[in-house]
Amino acid sequence: MNNSSIPDLADYLAGMASVGASMTLTDVGAAVGIAVAVLGFLANMIVTYRRDRREQRESDARVARMKKRG
User: pTM of the prediction?
Assistant: First the structure.
């Protein structure tokens, strides 16, 4: 790490510390709530995507079986 980036890093850390110190419990609760909502949304998107792929494979297999019979 060169010398010019150490003061920059210290400035960023001091800024984050001051923001963290100024947050009340309500602010922390709101931030955690938002984070949980975003994670829940992402998890739901992943589960839905995987379920759709699985159902598409099942449907393709059924259609292939029906074509084979007929």
Answer: 0.62
